[in-house]
Amino acid sequence: MAATPNSSAETTGDRPPGLRDRARRAVRSEVAAVATRLFLERGFAQTTVDQIAAEAGLSRASFFRYFATKEDAVLGHLEGYGQQLRHALSERPRQEPVWEALRHAFDVVLEVISQPEALNIGRMMNETPSLKARHIEKWLAWQELLVPEIAERLTESAAHSPDPRPRALAAAALACLDAALEAWVDSEGTEDLRGLFTEAMAAVSAPVHA
Amino acid sequence: MAATPNSSAETTGDRPPGLRDRARRAVRSEVAAVATRLFLERGFAQTTVDQIAAEAGLSRASFFRYFATKEDAVLGHLEGYGQQLRHALSERPRQEPVWEALRHAFDVVLEVISQPEALNIGRMMNETPSLKARHIEKWLAWQELLVPEIAERLTESAAHSPDPRPRALAAAALACLDAALEAWVDSEGTEDLRGLFTEAMAAVSAPVHA
DNA sequence: TCACTCTTGAGACTGAGTCTTATATTCAAG
DNA sequence: CTTGAATATAAGACTCAGTCTCAAGAGTGA
Lengths: 210, 210
Fold this sequence. Notes:
The structure is a homodimer.
Chain A lengths: L18 H24 L6 H8 L3 H7 L5 H4 L5 H10 L7 H8 L1 H7 L3 H11 L1 H24 L12 H22 L6 H13 L5
The structure holds a DNA duplex.
InterPro entries (chains A, B): DNA-bd_HTH_TetR-type_CS (IPR023772), Homeodomain-like_sf (IPR009057), HTH-type_TetR-like_transc_reg (IPR050109), HTH_TetR (IPR001647), MftR_C (IPR041347)
Protein name (chains A, B): TetR family transcriptional regulator
Keywords (chains A, B): DNA-binding, Transcription, Transcription regulation
């Protein structure tokens, strides 16, 4: 079985974290760093996979063994946060209002995102549709992870088979994150990301009645 | 000036709708029909642009003069609805609560989407990431059109420069549309799309407090 | 040492999207 | 009706992302 992109062969926990695995992780993050640097220097479209591979010292073929797509070299690290997010939500108290539970759960993500380098990546994403699209795909994966968790918190109120509400809530929360992130990038990082997010969440759950 | 994909050279209204223009529109929609049929028959990935071009009786190069991407052959018609949506929102009474205004504005879109053929396209989209991604890009364009319109309805409450709320509201409404559409496709079209959308909108603006 | 497995590099191959060039086709004057 | 500018087209070269196959390393366990 050959390793597929985004797998670390740790489907079930081998007691020792696996030496093979650590190596893979290390290479992955190193290549990602190189790629991101090149993208920021020359632009995303202007940087070819061959250039990244050459600069990082591996073959083109190997690059695609570490990343499914060119975009994933920048966004690959988002993969894992979906599970963390889901877990954070599942740990919120059962009787907490869904929207509030979601707001708290997102703390995990906000923590990671508000690194100053995210500013550059954010700007690049705004100029690069394919990157933005791939970014959203990642978030859609998060969304799907959140849906069952949210659904459980709604069961009291008659959920007929295809209930649009859990997905709507998950997607709306993600929408708030997106809006907050956008505003944060626009402000050059001067505003507080967490505050912007809270503001967005509040505006959506109780829209100002003009 | 050569015609670019998605332009009909009617940037300003030439009084006669333009014979050239009508021809272009006609070809465009005919090619789109052929493409959609082939996609549904053989699958999106299994259908090449060459096949579409051959079947539709034009050259590969010409295909890309009508559609910027292969995905646009299915999604191109969404282009125009953004403006309609924005217009519909702008016509809602000034004192109406934003969220309610949005809900009504989306009627325009719901009308168009709830065609039975949308079911097949919806199913195909769920199996085709690139298509889904492109679809979301279209919606992002709608979102950006709605933002200024929503911002105007919030001005009373101190909008400091980078205000995340308008975008959050626009994106959240789109999220509801997405969730409703998903549920609708899951139900094989048996459920009422408009009803599902209303339900989603209600759940988000006043989440059930478990 | 002998398998066995996993990783790598090399390179062929498909297909999307861009671009250039040359040939119609349309349309507006004269 | 003809000339000339603008535009639409086909043809095909070209770049690059992503897939696939194959053969050669490199680590591990007997």
